[in-house]
Design goal:
- Helix content is 27%, strand content 24%.
- The protein is of the alpha/beta class and 184 residues long.
- The chain has one domain: Alpha-Beta Complex (Spore Coat Polysaccharide Biosynthesis Protein SpsA, Chain A), CATH 3.90.550.
- A 7-stranded mixed beta sheet has the order 5-4-1-6-8-7-9, sandwiched between helices.
- Strand 2 and strand 3 form a beta hairpin.
- The longest helix has 12 residues.
- It is globular, with a radius of gyration of 15 Å.
């Protein structure tokens, strides 16, 4: 399974790009990569945008592919499109999409989402939920990548694409809160 970490936004409410945020657990960017990898993603691609050149050194030595969404200011949709286009040559059945600003995410959430969708292969659509509230990560089977790229605009990401489709919700509220952090 591919791992796709979206970290392109400017973090206006945070006061800095979230790709540059650190806390007692270290840089969120590094943590996001480790969670995807440890959770079962064979390869991780990180999409940067705002202050990409400042964030890139945090990824040195982690063995990840780094791409920059030139149109990052448009919103999460731009980062998602850039990331999925980068994965076009992958032979993996899907991609687990995560966000850099969900710092309490743990590898077990990623593993649980992957396991729940394993039998669906390239047709899989699954996402973590937290006490019944859909959240991240989201597993997109490769059969859906083109449709997600076509529909991802603004800060909506894959929301419009997923809305009319059957998506397996994987309860993970016992593992994490799933809350994205927008301010200090």
């Amino acid at each position: 399974m591919e791992g796709l970490l979206l970290a392109g936004g400017a973090g206006r409410r945070m006061g800095m790009p979230k790709a540059l945020v650190s806390d007692d657990g270290g840089p969120w960017l590094v943590r996001g990569v480790e969670v995807l990898r440890t959770g079962g993603c064979s390869r991780v691609t990180v999409v940067l945008g705002a202050e990409a050149e400042q964030a890139r050194p945090l990824l040195d030595g982690l063995g990840v592919e780094v791409v920059v969404a030139a149109d990052w200011a448009e919103g999460m949709g731009a980062s998602l499109r850039t990331g999925l286009r980068t994965l076009a040559d992958s032979t993996e059945p899907g991609a687990v999409v995560s966000l850099v600003d969900v710092p309490d995410l743990v590898p077990e959430v990623v593993s649980r989402v992957i396991a729940a969708a394993a039998s669906d292969g390239p047709a899989a659509l699954a996402r973590a939920s937290y006490d019944g509230r859909p959240g991240h990560p989201v597993l997109l089977g490769r059969e859906h990548w083109a449709g997600v790229v076509a529909s991802a605009v603004g800060d909506q990401g894959a929301r419009a694409y997923l809305a009319p489709r059957e998506v397996t919700l994987v309860e993970c509220g016992d593992l994490a809160s799933g809350h994205d952090v927008d301010s200090r």
